[in-house]
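Retro notes
What went well: the complex prediction finally ran end to end.
Inputs used:
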Amino acid sequence: MARLERMMEPMKSHLAKLPLPSFENQPWVPGKPLAGRRISLISTAGLQRRGDRPFEGMSGDYRMIPDDIKARDLVMTHISTNFDRTGFQQDWNLVFPIDRLRELAAEGIIGSVAAYHYSFMGATDPTEMEPVARNLASLLKGDGVDGTLLVPV
Amino acid sequence: MGALAHYLEDEGIPTTQISLIREHTRIIRPPRALWVPFELGRPLGAPGNPAFQRRVLLAALELLDAPEGPLLVDFPEEVPEDAAGGDKVLEGWSCPVSFAPESREETHMERLQSAFKREIAELCPWYDLNLERQDRTAVVEFGPESARELLESFAAGETMVIPKTNLSLATALRLAAQDLKSFYFEAAIARPGSASPTSGEFNRWFWQETAGGRILKAVKERCLKEEDESLRKTGALLLIPLDVS
């Protein structure tokens, strides 16, 4: 379980000692009801299209995942070996819940599913990630996205 | 993860997120976060359980309707018992593959290589069957034979020719190790009588009972002795989980 107090050493100390950013401001963007929003998934599981470049390090780079991707074409090249991958092997929705998101769109619970989703390598230094994230925001706006779900691994 | 949410929100994109480590999220304070009590690697909780995944997804998305924040909300459900995570007691699942006995007239490394080759050969038909049925594999770059050739050659101390010109040796070893584990898992679950193991059960089997696991430990040992920094880092951190000795 991802409860830090129940984790075994040395993983517990490794996670407890990770350097974390803290921010002075707390941005908050209000928006319309969920039923009108266009949602994009942003994963930090090191997901990529099969055939795209594997993740090689923590440089803040990301991979684009088109909405019509098939399960057989989405693979994971996150560099860490300290989390479970067997669940993703059994069901991609465990990490990339695209089928669930499509169902919510079909039922009108969310407005729509974005045309593009994105994946980063988790545990990347925020200073590396910041300029990339700020540029990504303009791509999301270009896709009409007004709600993102960030999914860690 | 939380920092990414902060930057996107700061640029005008509303964000909500799943949190796996509450302590981290409390410090970073992203705009909206749903903490879930699930194993690392399983943010939606339970594979093959769409109803449970939907409840997690909705709980995270509904935070977008909140009037103000930052918000850190706890998901109220534990993962269902039949999809429990990796730190439960490791019993009740063992791979039914019975590997052929090793020859006694070989060196330690030769015996290990022979056992490794036999494992791959015995698991291959089951891996192929699983791929045919599921139309999906987590293997990315190295099929079982090419992973075997790269990993056992490196473990045996041979001079390496990088098999893929666009990958460094360190990256190739890491991807081959990951692909090897994916191959073992997908082969093991295809065998008749095999229920899917928990992550802990699979890890115990792979790292303690297979020649593949022993080969990866030998790859790690050689990496740690190399001059190349990327190989030493790969050996120290990226081949074997921290909790595997």
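What we learned: The beta strands of chain B are 15-19, 32-35, 71-74.
What to try next: split runs per interface for comparison.
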